[in-house]
Amino acid sequence: MNPEKLGRFLIVSIVLLLFSCVSTMRVTMNTFRPADIMLPKDIRTIVLVDRTDFKNQAVNIIEGVLTGELPMEDRAAVQEGLAGMRNLLQTNDRFHVIVDPNRYKGNSLTSVFPAPLSWSTIGSICGAHDAQAVVAIELFDSDFIVTDEKKRVKKKIRKGEATVEREVDEYFARGVMNMKLGIRLYDNIRREVVDDELFSRTQTWKSRADSRDDAIEKLIRKGDATRVLCGRICENYIRKIAPLPIRITRKFYRKSKKAPAIEQGTRYADVNKWDEAIATWKKGLDGTPEKEAGYLAYNIAIGYEVTGDYDRALKWAQDAYTEYGNNLAQSYVSMLRSRKESERRLDEQMDGGE
Fold this sequence. Notes:
Blueprint: H1 3-9, E1 12-19, E2 22-33, E3 45-54, H2 57-67, H3 73-89, E4 96-106, H4 119-129, E5 133-159, E6 162-187, E7 192-209, H5 212-218, H6 222-241, E8 244-253, H7 260-270, H8 274-283, H9 290-306, H10 310-322, H11 327-350
Parallel strand pairs: 3-4, 3-5
Antiparallel strand pairs: 1-2, 2-8, 5-6, 6-7
């Protein structure tokens, strides 16, 4: 098997489970999720850009007064979002990533994308960093609303050596962050806007205390909430354009009284000797009752998936269902077909596509 492909998933952990009265285990594999957008192979270096410097600073200052924003608060959130993008993009070897230190005129007030950056500007940015593409945050708007309320709640209170239940006042605070963030992807080689997406997200934080002031004091600060939500949106966007690591989990049979080979093979799987586990499970098929043979065939399919042989994994999963009536294998067949397609797309994307 290709060593690069092998490295995607051979970090494996196994956990014991009980499933439908049959002793099972769980194997977890590291792999990559393919990107939604296939970027051409000649795009190797991407520049991340902050384009949220609003054109009219006077309007921007008024907005800050009205919404209670601290100076530079939004800019700090955008910069943290760009840093999160960079960190995610660097989890694979496909792209070299640079954050441009400049801030460009764009939109940090309304929900409308500004006109695209000129190709002369994109060319200058790419030329300065020897890059082929630009990902720009071009629209950013947020507000943070804090509400509070008082409720009567029952609490157990220590009184001397006894514990009594009393109704007391408790104060609750809620902070709601609403955010709109727009991102564009520019391909400087073909001079086209590959993608633009406007995100609209809301997140709520809660706190409680014995007084109103304490409840509000314990609530997340607006600046922190802005950075958290902006970072999550930016990370979601990177998952759209780049293959990123994920963990997938599969269940397999650990032992059965009527098929000792299941447990024998599992001991090899415990120490990551999957080839030996597969061989042991195959030997155990002879003379095994149909139900237990279905367990063995299913385990063999799991073993082949772990070792990266998806065609054999699919064949054994199909046999486990059609030949031995293992119902769990029916859904596993669908998983494997999806995994094969994902791996095909990953091979193209890790190599840069066509």
